[in-house]
C-alpha cells in the first residue's frame, strides 16, 4: 500500500471511530431528549477537536508527500509510526469526553490525551527531519536547504503539546480548548515545502 493510500485508510478509520464514540442518549418514555443531547456537550467538543487534529495531520501529511519522489525504508517506518499514533486518537478522545466534567479523573484523561498529542507531534517531526536530512527523497522542485530551515518552526508543536500536559492538571476543558487552538495554528501552512524558482 502506498503512503498516500495508507494515510487515507488510517484517517478514515480514526475519524469513523471518533463519531462512533458519540452515543444516542437514552431518555425513557417521557424523557427530555433535548436536555440529554445537550448533556453530551463534552463528547461533541472532544469530537470536533480530535477531528481537527486528525484532519490537519492528514492535510499536512498530504502536502509533504506531494513533494516526495522516493520512499526509503526509514520513511516507511516513520510513516507507519505516524499512522499508529493517529489511529489511537479516538481512545483518549472518548476518555476525555467521558471524564471532562469529573474532578480528578478529568485531569488524568486530559493528560493522557495531551501525551498522545506529544507523540503525534514528535512522530511527524521525526518524519519531516528524516526527509529534510536526506534530501534525496524529495523531487527536484524542492529547495533542500530552505526545507531544512523550516525544521525549527515545525518543531513548535513539540514545545506546545508538553505545555498542555501540565495544563491538564489545571483544567481539562481549557486543555481541550488549547488543543483546538493548536490545531487551528497547524491548519495554516506551518511547513511550506520550499521550491526552487
Q: Could you explain how this protein is built, in words?
A:
- The chain has 197 residues and is mainly α.
- The chain has one domain.
- Helix content is 74%, strand content 0%.
- The chain is built from 10 helices and no strands.
- Helix 3 runs antiparallel to helix 5, helix 3 runs parallel beside helix 10 and helix 9 packs antiparallel against helix 10.
- The longest helix has 31 residues.
- The two termini are 33 Å apart.
Q: What's the topology here?
A:
Layout: H1 3-20, H2 33-39, H3 41-65, H4 73-87, H5 90-99, H6 104-134, H7 144-149, H8 151-154, H9 156-168, H10 172-187
Helix pairs in contact: 1-3, 1-4, 1-5, 3-5, 3-10, 4-6, 5-6, 6-9, 6-10, 9-10
Q: How many helical elements?
A: 10
**Could you tell me the radius of gyration in angstroms?**
19 Å
Helical residue percent band: over 70%
> What would you call the shape?
elongated
Strand content: under 5%
Which parts are unreliable, with pLDDT below 50 for 5 consecutive residues or more? none
The whole-number mean of residue pLDDT values reads: 86
Largest sheet: none
Keywords:
197 residues
Question: Short description, anyone?
Answer:
This protein is an all-alpha fold and 197 residues long.
